[in-house]
Design goal:
By secondary structure, this protein is of the alpha+beta class. It contains three helices and eight strands. β7 and β8 form a beta hairpin.
């Protein structure tokens, strides 16, 4: 069964924001990685500033997960008010495809479903109502 969480996007202040949230809620980050941690790519060259920005952070708050990242020069700055996505963690590849295909119908796909270097089956889109979504399935460890 799918779980829904909030995903916030910042213009270079993600780490500071999440350190603040952690100071209020307590606990530890489940994961934090920078754009510089991902494999280099000719299709997505990164500046030194981009390399130091947060690619992904996740933080458990009760039974929910607050997630976030920074924009970068490839994606351009976000406009506040449009700087969040609803993130779905699906229970299977089939459920991922069903949710992705259904919700993205008549919308704009910004990243097709694909296997990622971090071990997930993942895609992003904006639905026909202007809401940003991320659909993710974490492959079981082998």
């Amino acid at each position: 069964m799918a779980a829904i969480n909030t995903y916030l996007i910042f213009n270079g202040t993600c780490e500071a924001a999440f350190l603040f949230y952690k100071s209020v809620f307590g606990g530890e980050f489940e994961q934090i990685s920078k754009f510089g941690d991902m494999p280099s790519s000719e299709e997505m060259p990164l500046s030194d500033e981009d390399k130091n920005r947060v690619m992904h952070v996740s933080f458990n708050i009760g039974n929910s997960i607050l997630m976030g990242s920074d924009s970068n020069s490839q994606s351009s700055d976000v406009v506040f008010g449009n700087n969040f996505s609803i993130s779905i963690n699906a229970g299977s590849r089939e459920e991922t495809e069903k949710l992705f295909n259904g919700l993205s119908s008549e919308g704009k796909i910004t990243m097709p479903l694909q296997d990622t270097f971090w071990g997930a089956y993942f895609g992003m889109f904006t639905d026909k109502f202007g809401i940003n979504w991320m659909v993710n399935f974490d492959e079981p460890p082998q």
